[in-house]
């Protein structure tokens, strides 16, 4: 039987003493430590901050040492809470649907929130994306997209095509299929040797925002783009007979390094996919719904994928929900196949609460004028993060849409930079060598200025 804890590791809350009540456990943080795993953190890792409240774009937090902070959430709760917290429109949508029914199975049943949300997504998405599959989370939506591509190829008479082409530096989720198309060397998932073997292209050439801030373009070195396209063509020429599709995060690679790349690469991917009968899958989970300054990041290249995954901001950060959209042509092939159905069906598929809030969130996105909101954030981040470029530890500063990234020349001291930013009124969650922000769209100009100033000052204080 496994040991309760490895030698030398103290897990203080791994067991509740006989006769003890929960109130005997001490503070919320004390009760958490040793009991709960947090994302990518050990049980005995640094103490988390306790959230005591959230409103608008601000979090109220308490540290393990008792210090209290009110901070602008520069992370939008991992890029999802684009409308901030306790938004009355989303709160009302949640309460109204809860008053009717909170959940029903989607097998053999349907309901208004799911149908309305699907109609909205199809109306927003570019032609010919006309069919919707609701999934539990972003990772699951990627699994569904990969399965869809394999089913499509088999139904099209190419059953040997079940591998995928992906990008170095990419990140697509934490489930097994999704992990297999994440960066195989520098990604988080290299510890799993049993993952399906996939094929990978180099990270696409970097691009930078230039031109009029209200109608900017992403520019890159044409020579670098041409060299990358040559590698794409060679890879597909060699492996195309075994590929079901190509999956990428369009224009912005998120958790793999916050890398902004040339839209021309998407155009080349579309062309090559068409030439070889491959499905082109865009993972817009992080980039969709305006984050990069376009409603969907593929719009930077004028490219429409065969399959598109969306999530994160879909419900405004209220509930977990994702969606897979596919073209009418792909759906027709699946419908005419042996199984006739997409072989996936989560218990909480099209959860009515999540669909109702997502529908309200999409209405709010349009009503609030997301383009103007994102432009304001972009302009504010470009101004407020500019001084960081002069710091000795900083390698690069880049901004696109409501995304600001400060790349260091060394790994970030995450606890120290987090605390230093909190002391300046901003919550950030750095990773690797990046201190970045993806704030709620409704941040004021003052909020955005505070974010940039806090990030710059925190780096300066910690990484001299």
Automatic annotation (TrEMBL):
What pathway does the annotation place this protein in? Cofactor biosynthesis; biotin biosynthesis; 7,8-diaminononanoate from 8-amino-7-oxononanoate (SAM route): step 1/1
Catalytic activity, reaction form: (8S)-8-amino-7-oxononanoate + S-adenosyl-L-methionine = S-adenosyl-4-methylsulfanyl-2-oxobutanoate + (7R,8S)-7,8-diammoniononanoate
Keywords of the record: Aminotransferase, Biotin biosynthesis, Cytoplasm, Pyridoxal phosphate, S-adenosyl-L-methionine, Transferase
Give me the residues that bind substrate, please: 78, 171, 312, 345, 429
Family matches, as SUPFAM superfamilies? PLP-dependent transferases
Keyword Cytoplasm tagged: yes
Q: Which cofactor does it need?
A: pyridoxal 5'-phosphate
InterPro entries recorded for this chain?
Aminotrans_3 (IPR005814), Aminotrans_3_PPA_site (IPR049704), BioA (IPR005815), PyrdxlP-dep_Trfase (IPR015424), PyrdxlP-dep_Trfase_major (IPR015421), PyrdxlP-dep_Trfase_small (IPR015422)
Give the location in the cell.
Cytoplasm
What EC numbers are recorded for this enzyme?
2.6.1.62
Which residues of the sequence carry a binding annotation for pyridoxal 5'-phosphate? Answer: 138-139, 283, 346-347
Domain of life here?
Bacteria
Give residue numbers for the site Participates in the substrate recognition with KAPA and in a stacking interaction with the adenine ring of SAM: 40
Which CDD domains does this UniProt record tie to the protein?
OAT_like (cd00610)
Annotated Gene Ontology MF terms? adenosylmethionine-8-amino-7-oxononanoate transaminase activity
Q: Which NCBIfam families match?
A: bioA, PRK05964.1
Described by its record, this protein's role is as follows:
Catalyzes the transfer of the alpha-amino group from S-adenosyl-L-methionine (SAM) to 7-keto-8-aminopelargonic acid (KAPA) to form 7,8-diaminopelargonic acid (DAPA). It is the only aminotransferase known to utilize SAM as an amino donor.
Q: How does it assemble?
A: Homodimer.
Q: Which family does the entry's similarity section mention? A: Belongs to the class-III pyridoxal-phosphate-dependent aminotransferase family. BioA subfamily.
- Its recorded name reads Adenosylmethionine-8-amino-7-oxononanoate aminotransferase
Could you tell me the gene encoding this protein? bioA
């Amino acid at each position: 039987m496994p040991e309760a804890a490895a030698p030398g590791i103290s897990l203080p809350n791994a067991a509740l003493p006989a006769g003890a009540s929960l109130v005997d456990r001490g503070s919320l943080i004390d009760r958490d430590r040793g009991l709960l795993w947090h994302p990518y953190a050990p049980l005995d890792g640094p103490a988390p901050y306790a959230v005591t409240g959230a409103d608008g774009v601000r979090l109220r937090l308490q540290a393990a040492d008792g210090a209290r902070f009110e901070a602008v959430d520069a992370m939008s709760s991992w890029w999802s809470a684009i409308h901030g917290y306790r938004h009355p429109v989303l709160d009302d949508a949640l309460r109204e649907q809860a008053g009717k029914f909170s959940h029903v199975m989607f097998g053999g049943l349907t309901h208004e929130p799911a149908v309305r949300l699907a109609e909205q997504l199809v109306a927003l998405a570019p032609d010919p994306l006309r069919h919707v599959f609701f999934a539990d989370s972003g990772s699951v939506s990627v699994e569904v997209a990969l399965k869809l591509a394999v089913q499509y190829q088999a139904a099209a008479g190419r059953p040997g095509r079940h591998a995928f082409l992906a990008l170095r530096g990419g990140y697509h989720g934490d489930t097994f299929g999704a992990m297999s198309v994440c960066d195989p060397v520098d990604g988080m998932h290299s510890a799993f040797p049993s993952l399906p073997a996939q094929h990978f292209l180099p990270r696409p050439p970097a691009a930078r925002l230039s031109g009029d801030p209200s109608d900017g373009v992403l520019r890159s070195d044409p020579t670098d783009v041409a060299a990358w396209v040559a590698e794409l063509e060679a890879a597909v020429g060699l492996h195309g007979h075994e590929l079901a599709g190509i999956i990428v995060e369009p224009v912005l690679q998120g958790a793999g390094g916050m890398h902004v790349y040339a839209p021309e690469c998407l155009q080349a991917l579309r062309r090559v996919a068409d030439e070889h009968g491959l499905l082109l899958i865009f993972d817009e989970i992080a980039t969709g719904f305006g984050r990069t300054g376009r409603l969907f990041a593929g719009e930077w290249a004028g490219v429409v994928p065969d399959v598109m995954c969306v999530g994160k901001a879909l419900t405004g950060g209220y509930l977990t929900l994702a969606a897979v959209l596919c073209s009418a042509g792909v759906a027709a092939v699946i419908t005419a196949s042996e199984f006739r159905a997409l072989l996936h069906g989560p218990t909480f598929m099209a959860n009515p609460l999540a669909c109702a809030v997502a529908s309200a969130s999409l209405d709010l996105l349009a009503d609030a004028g997301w383009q103007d909101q994102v432009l304001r954030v972009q302009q504010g981040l470009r101004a407020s993060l500019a001084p960081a470029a002069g710091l000795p530890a900083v390698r690069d500063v880049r901004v696109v849409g409501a995304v600001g990234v400060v790349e260091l020349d060394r790994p970030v001291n995450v606890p120290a930079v987090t605390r230093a930013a909190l002391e300046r009124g901003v919550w950030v969650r750095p990773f690797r060598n990046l201190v970045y922000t993806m704030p709620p769209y409704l941040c004021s100009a003052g909020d955005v200025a505070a974010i940039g100033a806090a990030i710059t000052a925190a780096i300066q204080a910690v990484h001299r």
